[in-house]
Amino acid sequence: MTLIAPRITDMNDPLQQSKQNQFLRDIRQMAFLLTFLDKNGGVADGLKAYNFDAVWVAYTSNGSADTEDTVAHKLDRIPNGVWAGMPDKAAVIYDSGTAWTSTNIFLKADAATVVVNLLVF
Prior knowledge:
Elements: H1 14-33, E1 55-60, E2 69-72, E3 82-84, E4 93-95, E5 104-109, E6 115-120
Antiparallel strand pairs: 1-6, 2-5, 3-6, 4-5
């Protein structure tokens, strides 16, 4: 299923309201199909986050802020994005600008030696 948000210019137009409502129903349906839980209700761990095509990666930035880190992943494809968990200190984790590969992503952190779990998807 591909979702494309409708362009809404007049929320009083019944046709545009209908398109917006259908879009929101589609998003809700897709959200129900995703799970980060295992069959016992525990949070997924290991390599795959169950039916979400992603991998968990532990990331520790290097000792110099704002310098590139190579982060290995086992997704076996070029990732679309990263969700960062709660870092162990105040920091922003961001894309370094180097193209990602099927084995590595390239990130920077604005603080030295930040520890955070990443969901690479």
